[in-house]
Task: structure prediction
Amino acid sequence: MTEHREVLVDFGANWCPDCKALDVMFRSPQVQPLLQRDYLVVAVDVGQFDHNIDLAGQYLDLQSSGIPALVVLKSDGTVRTATSDGSFSNARSMDPEQVSAFLTRWAPGAGQ
Result:
């Protein structure tokens, strides 16, 4: 049986408090099962906005989105969504239910 999961690209850095908060939520009981079922997670370190910027630039503008920034890719590599609006750049103020809602909205088979 072929498993269908979307690719979730997580642009962030280890110095970023919001990235750390999102990482904690990714491991929470509300979020982790969704990630494991529906996504292949790829973490991309942007350092001090001096690493992997070309890669990030293919999907969003980190200067306007901030970090963490998430991109959901279909299995063929096309973008389903990108958080160009900075919606995760203040992850410290989010809760696992908000992260779960985002993941559920963009899961395989979910409405576009």
About this structure: The longest strand covers residues 6-12. Helices lie at 17-26, 32-38, 53-57, 62-65, 96-105.
